[in-house]
Amino acid sequence: MKIAFLAIGDEIISGKVQDANGKYLADKIALNGLSLKYLMTAGDNQKEIMAAFDFLASTSELIVCSGGLGPTPDDLTMEVFAQYSGAALEFQAGVFEKIDRRFKLRGIETPITNKKQAMVPKGAKVIPNPIGTAPGIEAGFKNRQWFFLPGVPPEFKKMTDEFIIPRMLELASEKKSLATKTLRCFGLPESGIADRLNKLKFDPLLKLAYLPEFPEIYLRLSALCEDRNQAEAIVSKAADQVKAELKEYVFSDTDQPLELVVGELLKSRGLTLATAESCTGGLAAKRITDIPGSSHYFLGGYVTYSNPLKHKELGVSEEMLAAKGAVSDEVARAMAEGARKQTGADVAIAITGIAGPTGGTPEKPVGLVFIALEDKNGLWSQRLQFLPWGRAAVRELAAETALEIVRRRVLGLRMPGEK
User: How far apart are alpha carbons 105 and 392 in whole angstroms?
Assistant: First the structure.
């Protein structure tokens, strides 16, 4: 079955908003053994939307559209589809009652303009929106199945999970069993992973997809077979092959984020963690505390952005700061020691660096980061030079590397940079 996606909205065409819905849908489709053939974008313009409809109808059997279902005049999707399909728009009182009820729950009088969201093409099926006002629509036209969903990502994702994917599987003509597994990797570039995996011989029915998700690489293994057991056996064997080849660079074979993997390791061993951050501004601590239950192992963190605070809170000497500078191996080590001493944590990790885009020098360029860790086995530190891809990228890489260092230290694995 040929599936296509169309994102509608001037905010996407102008680059002000990045389309997250197409990526989400593509990922969900792939996980269910289906195939997305086209990803398109059109602005809030009748001619552009109509042209996109024409193209997709000529190339695809199932079309999912997001955006343009709001109450304002520039939300044109339903009007254009009604014109395209020749189906008149009809006011559905039941749909409007749900919209009205949602506003009343918020103590707000329903704006008259929201009646527009209750206009549905004749013969179309309404897809409930459990968290927003704009309903979704399913319609059959030109031997194609059309789906229209709100562009707001949380609404789109929930409706995709609860209705679109099950409906796609129902409509799919090919009934086979799919097995998938996602391995998450960090520390090797995509090309480096490919070089290693190219040496392996996988089952011909295995599909291996490289999915860069900065700063990590996801490897999605899948097999589509007539027999469920066969598909699972192919994927399981391939996962074992990949893990044996990539070794410590695979941190999860259950599609878990690194912060969850680290948290479970600490919890299972009864260890506690503290952080001391400068250039990352608390990003490592934020990721750790994104995980429910992290209070079992995370004692707290310091964001010592200024030199006086590094001295006051972590005990980094003023003489060291003056002589070596805040971005130095010595200061990173002192920050880790201070965080562990102040909190009593079993493990303390410290990060200091130059995220940019300014502040770099020939001796200490943008992207330079020092990370240090102290635990019962002693003090460890490393100088890292990340490419100056931008402030956000340097900070993300630094936080990710710090978490990876904790993982490896707890597991007794080779530390980054070690032979």
Answer: 39
Query: Would you give per-residue pLDDT tens digits along the chain (419 residues)?
Result: 899 999 999 999 999 999 999 999 999 998 888 889 999 999 999 999 999 999 999 999 999 999 999 999 999 999 999 999 999 999 999 999 999 998 998 899 999 999 999 999 999 999 999 999 999 999 999 899 999 999 999 999 999 999 999 999 888 866 678 899 999 999 999 999 999 999 999 999 999 999 999 999 999 999 989 899 999 999 999 999 999 999 999 999 999 999 999 999 999 999 999 999 999 999 999 999 999 999 999 999 999 999 999 999 999 999 999 999 999 999 999 999 999 999 999 999 999 999 999 999 999 999 999 999 999 999 999 999 999 999 999 999 999 999 999 999 999 998 877 76
Model pTM score: 0.82
**Residue whose token pair is 């929106």:** 129
| DSSP three-state, residue 271 | coil
Write the DSSP string, 78-92: HHHHHHHHTPPEEE-
Q: Coil, strand, or helix at residue 86?
A: coil
Structure-derived torsion over alpha carbons of residues 147, 152, 156, 159, reported in degrees to the nearest 10:
-100
CA 292, CA 164: separation in Å to the nearest integer?
29
Angle 329-343/307-314 helices, nearest 10 degrees? 40
Strand 62-66 relative to strand 144-149, pairing:
parallel
- In one-letter notation, the amino acid at residue 316 is V
* 204 lies in some domain: yes
Same domain, 26 and 154: yes
Residues 184, 186, 190, CA angle at the centre, nearest 5°? 90
Please check whether residues 49 and 166 belong to one and the same domain. yes
* Angle formed by the axes of helices 77-85 and 46-59, nearest 10°: 60
Same domain, 152 and 185: no
Please provide the distance, in angstroms rounded to a whole number, between the alpha carbons at the two ends of the chain. 49
